[in-house]
Give the backbone structure.
Amino acid sequence: MKSKAIILLASVLLFSSCIIKSIQPFYLKNSLSYNKALIGKWADQKGGQWEVISMKEEFIKDKKEGLIFSDDDKKAYENYKDGYFINYIKKEKEVSFIAMPFIIDNQYFVDFIPFDINTDAINSLASEHLLKTHSVAKLDVNSDTNVSFSWLSEERIKNLFNESTLRLKHETVGPEEALLLTASSQELTAFLKKYLKADIKDKWKSSDALMLVKEII
Amino acid sequence: MQHLSFNTLIKKSDYHRPLLFNSVLWLLAFVILLFIFSKGNTPIKVDYIYTVAFLLFMAIPVSINFYILIPKFLKLEKYIAYVSLFILNLLLFSILSSLFFQASLDTLFPNFFFISYLSKTNSYVIFSIFLVATTLFKLAEDWFYFNTNENKNLKLKNQHIETQLSSLRSQMNPHFLFNSLNVIYALALEQKGEITKAIVELSDILRYVIYDSDTKRVTLKDEIKLLQNYIAFQKHRVQVSNLVDFKIAVKNENFKIYPMLLLPLLENSYKYGITNTDSSDLIQISLSQHENQFEFIIKNANIGLKNNLDSDYSGVGLENLKNNLHLVYPKKHQFSIKNTTKTFTVIIQITDEQY
């Protein structure tokens, strides 16, 4: 299993500034839907490099190499076999995610969770305070070589809370009063389903939207 | 007429107030559910909409329960049918809720997000709790009014009994007074010296009858004293010596009985059981008491006159006595009359725990 991921606090903040974070995954097991089209190397419009690997294939590869799996590894395999392992490199900083593709009302989504945080780069006490959270992005496969991720924006959700039109379990944490969803995966799925249909202006538009183009080797 | 008006009063005392009951119930339900749905936070617009919609939906199974199931099954003691239909009602609307409630809300309010409210499992639980709680609330309301009515009816019944007893007593006293005055009148006519003694005895009797007997219970001691005074008084009228054989076997002289139960029977014996000439027409009285048992037996000769406790004079008689016993000692007394060709016997037996 690849575990070379190095994550810097700055890169965490890159995403944490605008995307909504959740304690629980945004998907339910029965909504998972593996999409082979995402496998490969991609480049986004902001200079980021993406390597998307199938978790299942990675497990098989490791097994062939004679790696012995612990019970935790086997459990992880069961949980993430339908997902991806993603390496994201930008400005020579590398971060890895476990990404789980799922479908709600014929729309692909990908749930992201940081896989490994290298605490060498940050103060160890500070690293003790970090919590791995889930984020969700709408995945649009525009063509075989072009996909886009539109993360669910914290700003949009805050607006819904401010307008008193949303009841979803959440907390506001830290001095930045960051929004942290504490709802169950079932509730998050129900929310995404309703959000897809809701008449909200620019509901998927955010500065974190990424257009990925496949690299031809 | 009195009985009719009493029933009318009972019918009038149905004080169910459906508007008040439903207002309190649904307001209470709204407050509790709003608190639950807003997770203890300050309620927001979406919470109000969800709570009102939920209550509107719940109004259907609750109304079915209140106005069909409870009156037609529970109140008629058809418990199994009621429980079965209650569960059916619960399941039906729980399923309908899971199928249509959220979908209807989403259609009606496309830009409102009713997310962290009821999961499927929770909706079954909330439905069950809500239906059971409203049923208990309804039963509590029924019990409240039932209890109020019951107390009101009890008061009315007591009033009714008091009126009856007072009426019977007020009829009895003049009857006794007229008889006594007749005796004094007879003594005065004959200008007998013992008239003064007779007046004092009558005075004692009247004091008891008018003042002391106007209580719920008197002691046996006082009631025996009355009978003895009466017998002494009657000696002025009846010229037969040792006419009355009065046997007393009382363990507790303070045993309490309803006043003036025995005197009418003694009066009756004097009036219909003796002649002024025949000394063999003995009046036999046996008065006994042991623990909570009281027995009074009075026996006189049946000399052919109608033993009817002077019904011609006062309109009261044995029937009055029976009524009194029935009202004062319901299911705690026995009243029997043995009327043979030679003797006329009346037996009263009372079992009273309040002795």
